[in-house]
Design a protein that fits this description.
There is one protein chain. The chain is of the alpha+beta class. The chain has one domain (about 1-100): YaeB-like fold, CATH 3.30.2310.20. Helix content is about 30%, strand content about 35%. The protein is built from 3 helices and 5 strands. It has helices at about 10-15, 25-40, 45-50; strands at about 1-5, 55-60, 60-65, 70-80, 85-95. The chain has a 5-stranded mixed β-sheet with strand order 1-5-4-3-2. The longest helix has 16 residues, at about 25-40. The radius of gyration is 13 Å and the shape is globular. The termini are far apart.
Length: about 100
């Protein structure tokens, strides 16, 4: 799947090893792993099968993927010229605890 980033910092965090956007190394590493998984998937349905992703619909074609217990990755999916595109919109801190989910 192709990836498009809506924020420059998200793109930099994937491509520049020294750039962390002020986040912990654990969050950055997990984020990069999720981006790799998005690139490897042909469609989002493949990601839904991975329980650790906690793939959740957010409405209007947008989804949330678990990055760590405290962080989610917001992603939308589009189709362009027969290619599936994951639009990485935001890396957000969760407002609910693990037991509230």
């Amino acid at each position: 799947m192709d990836i498009r980033f809506s924020e420059t910092a998200l793109d930099r965090m994937e491509s520049e090893l020294a750039f962390t956007a002020g986040l912990s190394p654990a969050v950055v590493s997990a984020y990069r792993g999720r981006i790799q998984a998005l690139r490897a998937a042909t469609r989002e349905q493949a990601l839904q099968q991975l329980q650790s992703f906690e793939f959740r619909a957010r409405g209007h074609g947008k989804h949330a993927l678990c990055v760590t217990d405290d962080w989610d990755l917001h992603v939308a999916f589009e189709e362009a010229n027969g290619t599936r595109i994951a639009v990485v919109e935001a890396l957000v801190q969760r407002t609910t605890t693990k037991t509230e989910r």
